[in-house]
Write a structure and sequence with these properties.
The chain is about 45% helix and about 0% strand. With about 325 residues, the protein is an all-alpha fold. Bound molecules: protoporphyrin IX containing FE (HEM) and 2-acetamido-2-deoxy-beta-D-glucopyranose (NAG) (3 copies). Protoporphyrin IX containing FE (HEM) binds near residues 51 and 157.
Length: about 325
């Protein structure tokens, strides 16, 4: 009976591989140590540099929004091809070495088995958990793609987007406005450069220099950090006041007019999304539940068809 069940499960899992469907413990037989190896690499890097978790979370988001989660964000430019990571909104992308290190460890355990896309998805989960956020089981079985183009980055949502643009960008990828509100909570971690919110603090529109929906003291502090013709490339602002902790402070600040981007503020322009912001501001647990659900959905957008040996190089 057990053998029958086992062979049924095997047949079933092969069927799933065929359609590139994801499952928890996909590597249980082929690479049992993969999740520990990735976690180890993320922990080690974070101990040296507390900006690593934010970088990994954003990297995974970029990966999934362009050609599905296929590791395309990890590829280096080569020859006449300018890769995704060298496209315009790459200013905060960093810590690619963490994925390189994880991949190296995983290749030693089980050569040629685990995709770079899966390693990044696992690393993003670990990044959230390490920062005090929820931990969840990540379905794996993603494949790596062969295409990575700088021009594709125009498909990413911009921080200047209004609600209808955000809604369209997410719904094109099967993500709801509820998912949009929950995933925007990723902005509880990390740092933004001046260029990402410049539109709100200088020359906002014909009547206002500063976006009137912003808390004035908050706007003032951003204008100090980012003067009109800012030349300091590294200047900017923490995403929220506790930007190495995965908590619901982002939503609390948003309700006080202290959201950083127009795209954050846009969540308050519709009743349903505004109510969700209020709920997440009120309850860390509600935020975490919704975030996990939305992350699993976003990270199930698959695309590739192979397993790269070096995450930076398409062969
Ligand atoms: C809703 C649409 C989104 C827009 C328009 C957006 C835009 C941005 C921008 C402009 C930055 C700052 C880049 C810079 O100035 O350095 C940023 C940072 C960040 N975003 Fe988003 N984002 C969105 C959704 C997401 C999602 C879904 C996640 C993950 C769940 C995410 C996670 C992050 C993180 C962690 C950072 C900080 C990165 C770092 O410090 O290295 N964002 N985002
Ligand atoms: C880019 O390089 C590849 C080979 O390295 C070549 O096949 C292709 O034609 C080149 N494309 C352009 C637009 O130059
Ligand atoms: C971002 O793109 C610029 C050119 O557009 C490139 O010089 C730089 O290395 C890229 N940054 C990263 C982290 O890839
Ligand atoms: C959102 O932005 C788009 C593009 O700029 C614009 O066409 C649209 O009218 C805007 N929607 C709202 C509700 O402001």
């Amino acid at each position: 009976m057990a053998a029958l069940i086992a062979s049924f499960l095997l047949a079933f899992s092969l069927l799933l591989v065929g359609v590139n469907a994801l499952m928890v413990d996909y590597y249980a037989e082929t690479c049992p140590g993969v999740e520990e190896a990735v976690e180890e690499a993320v922990k080690k890097a974070t101990a040296n540099d507390n900006t690593v978790p934010a970088a990994l979370l954003r990297m995974h988001f970029h990966d999934c929004f362009i050609r599905g989660c296929d590791g395309s964000v990890l590829v280096d430019s080569q020859g006449n091809n300018t890769a995704e990571k060298d496209g315009p909104p790459n200013i905060s992308l960093h810590a690619f070495y963490v994925i390189d290190n994880a991949k190296k460890a995983v290749e030693e355990l089980c050569p040629g088995v685990v995709s770079c896309a899966d390693i990044l998805a696992l690393a993003a989960r670990d990044a959230v958990a390490i920062s005090g956020g929820p931990i969840w089981e990540v379905p794996t079985g993603r494949k790596d793609g062969k295409i990575s183009r700088a021009s594709d980055t125009s498909q990413l949502p911009a921080p200047t987007f209004n609600f209808s643009q955000l809604k369209q960008s997410f719904s094109q990828r099967g993500l709801s406005t509820g998912n949009l509100v929950a995933l925007s909570g990723g902005h509880t971690l990390g740092f933004a450069h001046c260029s990402s919110f410049q539109n709100r603090i200088h020359n906002f529109d014909a009547t206002d220099d500063v976006d009137p929906s912003m808390n004035p003291a908050f706007a003032d502090s951003l204008r100090k950090a980012c003067p009109a013709h800012n030349k300091v490339r590294s200047a900017g602002s923490a995403m929220d006041s506790t930007n190495t902790v995965f908590d619901n402070t982002y939503y609390k600040l948003l309700l006080q007019g202290k959201g950083l981007f127009s795209s954050d503020e846009a969540l308050l322009t519709h009743r349903k999304t505004m109510e969700l912001v209020a709920r997440f501001a009120d309850s860390q647990k509600a935020f975490e539940r919704a975030f996990v659900k939305a992350m699993i959905r976003m990270s199930s957008l698959t695309g590739g068809d192979g397993v790269r040996l070096d995450c930076r190089v398409v062969t």
